């Protein structure tokens, strides 16, 4: 079994094999490891792919949790194993069964929650940016020779020069094998911990995460986009101010084959301008990026930070250059949130908040994905849409009353039409009476007032019987009650009768069936549910 999987794994890693990134192979490897444990727990574990059976697969499927992780385990393992030509037909059939999508419960931040997250990130990054800016300025003066010799500032400048070149202030190894900061520099710097030494020029992991959170809160980027964000290039605008315009090239992997590319421009024309955060990010990461550029000239990333000590690289997806971390590492956002006293991991919720509620346009995804994933399921969007929907329904109803029949006449039903109690429907999901994409919830009596409705000859007998039934109600109900409940529907059917003509209408009445009478009776009594 291991050899068979190794063959498949190697093929997937080849160019064009389907895995174009380390993250893809790692994700599949983790799910295969889970599947392998499941197989090992069986009374008679299969020894190779041909011994896998449909019943075994069904047991595996039922054992998976009913969440996104469980769905991912099922689909990844199935996709992987199906590449083996020895998979039996019954097993292929079992694997082909649809795995329902798991409804995501993630919602956008409420305004006060969003402010809390953003304020926490601003507070942390602002302090880091100020610290690095002050020390960068001191280093510039030291290099220019404007710092007086034999002063504390001169010693600090010397230490910063070493830090900017090597990533460390001047140190030595003591007799106890501990690496210590040289005494005169330790005194000048005020200590030898991270804040007094390397954090003078470099962001820490948590400070870099705060920057990533701000980029998401400002521009709606997701964690992967922030991690892979190249260093923005600035060009002056054509106006008198010469403000820098940053061009950000965004890349996002798509599901399946291909990637999504998008370019955005941000201008820094002062405080709170779209490009001001980019300017500060460039300033705060410049010293670290210079060292990384010397070590790895081909790497061009904006978010760079330093670690206090070399740590064991337990996650192959995390990118390191020496002691410098690149991008947003795994679980970093969760750790930052806990340190800031906030629940959960903020990046996904920030992205949804910004793109659904603030920008109100797609960000690194299609319009369909933006609408179906970010906008329509969001409770705040739904709440804000209630008065708009109510106004739209009112307008639609008024229009229906004024124009009478809006359903279109056709010679025969279309193959894709949905049959209602009265007519055929061409677009159930996008009704003028309810929220777009949510499905029509209007009364079947309003079908004749809907432009999505189609009246074919097969519908005419039922509509003719409905018209006669409404006339009968008119004879037994008080005029004001009949007008309130049935007038508009009857008027539209009158218009239909006029369009079809008396001969066709009489033929329709003669063709009324028992089923037609039953449906109309239920419809008028409010018992018809489709």
What shape does the CA trace take? elongated
Helix content: 40-55%
β-strand percent reads 5-15%
The low-confidence parts are none
Number of strands: 12
N-end to C-end Cα span: 52 Å
Radius of gyration: 34 Å
The strand order across the widest sheet is 9-12-11-10
How would you characterize the largest beta sheet?
4 strands, mixed
Q: Roughly what is the average pLDDT, rounded to an integer?
A: 86
Structural class call reads: alpha+beta
How many helices? Answer: 19
Structure description:
The structure is a single chain. The chain has 530 residues and is of the alpha+beta class. The protein is built from 19 helices and 12 strands. Strands 9-12-11-10 form a 4-stranded mixed sheet, with no helix packed on it. The chain has a 3-stranded antiparallel sheet with strand order 3-4-5, with no helix packed on it. A hairpin with a 2-residue loop joins strand 7 and strand 8. Helix 6 packs across helix 11. The radius of gyration is 34 Å and the shape is elongated. The mean pLDDT is 86.
